[in-house]
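Journal club prep — side note

Before the paper discussion, L.F. wants everyone to see what a predicted structure for a comparable chain looks like in token form. Sequence:
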Amino acid sequence: QVQLVESGGELVQPGGSLRLSCAASGSFVSINAMGWYRQAPGKQRELVATISSNGNTNYADSVKGRFTVSRDNAKNTIYLQMNNLKSEDTAVYSCNAYVRFSGYVQLRWGQGTQVTVSS
């Protein structure tokens, strides 16, 4: 069984910074693309950032210049450095990963971590 476990979410003031982590554990061949998504109350889940296995990144326009996605392939971990946080960044942040098993690939999700930006 494969698990994705996020950490790092908390209450932060506007203008502050947070670093989220998401680690994959279990039995698999490798991890392909990974990503961060968020869902605010009453809104649909939206893409925040993605990163391929070779480090190519993609960001939502709303976070460009403020958020940075990175990964450590040796640790099967993805990170999201969030700077200059705004109240509209408040959401549950979830990671996903395309996990390669022997002969197939599956998309797996973490359980999410709450980020609240408020004074």
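L.F.'s comment for the group: The chain has no helices and eleven strands. Keep this in mind when we get to the figures.
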